[in-house]
Write a structure and sequence with these properties.
The protein is mainly alpha-helical. Helix content is 66%, strand content 5%. Strand 3 and strand 4 (31-33) form a beta hairpin. Helix 12 (262-282) packs antiparallel against helix 13.
Amino acid sequence: MFKEGICPCCHEKIQVPEDRDQIICMFCGKEISVEEALEKQKSKIRKVSQEEYDQYMDTAKAVLEKLIRECDNPMQNFRKNLYEGAFNDFCSINRPLFEAVDMICGNAEDADGVTTELTDHLINAAKEELAGVKFKGHKNQKQMDYNFLLSIYLVPSAVKYPGEYSEQFADHLLADWNQAFGTNLGKATYEGIAGGFRRKLCYVTTAVCEGLGKGTDCYELNVLKRYRDEYLEHAKGGHELVEEYYDIAPTIVKRMEKEADKEQIYRALYEDYLMPCIRKIEAQEYEECRDLYESMVETLKVKYLM
């Protein structure tokens, strides 16, 4: 006899045999408790005492603060063959946060108020960490790491978690974070992000960097990939711009490759567009970077497509 349950680690819906104590989740491969998987499906919020409520609040704040304090290169596993495992691990490790959010909001007279208290705690922890970073370039990198953590792991995990208040928490967090840091992060899902790996990455930038002997893992390419994933994809009209770019960029690159002076072309693109874009990203001038990159694409369209 099977019942529908939810994996407590990756939050996927699974068919659970009632006559077993432990099973392996077919999605994340983790060994899970049948009882826990079936309880998760119920997703009921029980009435708690003030002492329990305070404990849940402390747990939620501790997890949020730990996410900020220990945030180190969250892009490391953002690769087609690594992201699924990294995301499922994140969901499993931070499950106490989402459980606590449900219990706190479900027992509070003002769910919005306590959600704001939690998001403020995360934002203040981030501001404290940023204030301790001495150099501007390092501070900008740390800010991008935090943006990436929220966009690729924390918010999608909250959206995926089968709780009553977790998605509301994600919405609140994005709104408060964007206001506090002047960002424009959007609400992404795991499925949407994982599906994005089907696209090729940064055609023109990759061609230029490879043509100049910099390789596919150079600083410039990584910064522009981060900019695309963490800012442009979530900015107004940015996703559409990225989609249009991927429609035309392969043809542009193929035609540049046939030019006799292609090395000079790559050098000019690098000096006139790509490095100025990098400098604007480092200075957090994200819209100015967007304008410059659009200008480069329009120039290339005129030269190689029209």
